[in-house]
Amino acid sequence: METFVWSGKDKRGQSMKGEYAAKNISLVKAELRRQGISPTSVKAKPKPLFGAAGKKITPREIAVFSRQISVMMQAGVPLVQGLDIIAGGQANVRMKNMLTAIKTDIEGGSTLYEALGKFPVQFDELFVNLVKAGEAAGVLDTVLDTVATYKENIESLKGKIRKAMFYPAIVFAVALLVSAILLIFVVPQFESVFKNFGADLPAFTQMIVSASRFTTAYWYIVLLGTIAFFAAFIFAYKRSPAFAHFCARAVLKLPVIGQILHQSAIARFARTLGVTFRAGVPLVEALDSVAGATGSPIYNAAVKRIREDVAIGHQLQLAMRQAQLFPNMVVQMVAIGEESGALDKMLFKIAEFYEEEVNNAVDALASLLEPFIMVIIGTMVGGMVIGMYLPIFKLAAVVG
User: Fold this and answer.
1) b/e map of 193-206 (b: 16 or more CB within 10 Å)?
2) In sequence order, which residues have a C-beta less than 8 Å from that of residue 117 and are 6 or more positions away?
3) DSSP designation for 259
4) CB of 102 within 8 A of CB of 79?
5) Cα 63 from Cα 61, distance rounded (Å)
6) Of 206, 137, 166, 229, which Cα lies nearest the Cα of 384?
């Protein structure tokens, strides 16, 4: 499919122009004539010099797409036409091309879940399985509405977690940058003054001066070493499950932040399982999809163990209790849901509760971190300033 720019006149002689996606110019002209438009110019749309491939498709765009297609289907718009309308309104070229390819597959006889399955990066196993269940049950519009709500809630939760992590990371990075500037540009100026004193420097000041000399002489080694450290860390985290598991467990033990990550993992577990179970996916199969949606290697492994226990006949609440990760309240609510036959409703209640807890914790995090951040900045930056003025204080005492 290629996008063509056309201009022409309607039956009243009014000039019109627009864009149309088709395989060739002849098809564009035929479609325009069918609509009563006499084409005067049809040519391929020029590709931009930069950004022709479009930006990366984000999970937020997938969430918006889910909501758009669910609304259109509930309004009675045919699936193919709905995809065509949504694709036409996309500013992201990659998103537009992907939706056009999905529409083409469906026109060729594929089901929606088969067409979505060709894009596993954008539509994960959970998304595809839910759509498959909806198509099989004949309630695709309802399932798409549920999926849209699910994606919106999950993306909102992810945004809150990023907000919780972003603030302390930025402050720490700024503190490091200020310290580096002091070591490279400020301390050498003080060092030249100290040489005129003719006296031994305090040990603390000498340590800072030595650090400044090393940083100034070997700044490229420090920079490359820092980059290499973070690159090695990321490589090991992605390639070594054991290392990723260790890091995840260590982060979960951190005060405040660890609690937020615990609560977000439980919220995502409950909402994902509730959505899949309500869509008619069997519990064992639903747990397969849930494992990767928790966002934590620790909970991922725990959910896989839960799935194995459920597969051999254990109740979900018993399997969750054995995992020793879920609070007693969560286990009890799941037990009530299983006994009353309203497991999906109880899971949604759990998700809503913990999402609210995460929201409150993130709002409170900034005020909780302020004293801690002040201590870090005071220790790193203030310590160097004090170290530089110690010889001056010592000289003043001697002169006095």
Assistant:
1) ebeeeeeebeeebe
2) 123, 128
3) H
4) no
5) 5
6) 206
pTM (2 d.p.): 0.66
The residue written with tokens 């998304």 in the block is 127
User: Mind listing the pLDDT tens digit of every residue in the chain (400 residues)?
Assistant: 677 888 888 888 888 888 777 778 888 888 888 888 888 888 887 766 554 556 788 888 888 888 898 888 888 888 888 888 888 888 888 888 899 889 888 988 888 989 998 888 888 877 888 888 788 777 888 888 888 888 888 888 778 777 777 777 777 788 788 888 888 887 887 777 776 666 667 788 888 888 888 888 888 888 898 899 989 988 988 888 888 888 888 888 887 778 888 888 898 888 888 888 887 778 888 888 787 777 788 888 888 899 999 999 889 999 999 988 899 999 999 999 989 888 889 998 998 898 888 888 877 776 777 777 778 777 877 787 787 777 777 666 555 5
Sign of CA dihedral 251, 253, 259, 261: positive
Instruction: Report d(CA 246, CA 339) in Å as an integer.
Output: 36
H helix runs in the chain, sequence order:
25-34, 59-74, 79-88, 93-107, 112-116, 125-137, 140-181, 187-194, 203-217, 219-239, 241-252, 257-278, 283-291, 297-311, 316-323, 328-340, 343-377, 383-399
Instruction: Tell me the three state secondary structure of residue 285.
Output: helix
What lies within 8 Å, CB to CB, of 361 at 6+ separation is 164, 256, 259, 260, 263
